[in-house]
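Hi, here's the filled form for the chain we discussed.

Project: internal
Contact: R.S.
Residues: 103
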Amino acid sequence: MAIIANSLIALTGLLHVGFLVFEMFLWTGPRGRAVFRMTPQQAETTRVLAANQGPAFAFELKVFFLVCVIVAAIYGAWSVKPRILLIQGGPAITALLFVLMAS
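And the returned structure, exactly as it came back:
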């Protein structure tokens, strides 16, 4: 089951990298227009919208995953060794602070 779950997670990640490439770089090109069935005028008109999809939700995802890492580091520090908080949690705490300051 774990292999199937991890494979599906990897597939989902790869698909979203593909979506990113199409939406940010290939949107107005022949392949992007063909995939999304757009005329050159439609593609050009919607180019900025396509490239900007997801930034607000990206913020929530960043915060969520960083908080998950911080919680795991706190639990590891409590249950195994306090140094885990520094090694695992330190970068996540620093990243979270910068994400919050950047918003």
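Let me know if anything looks off before we file it.
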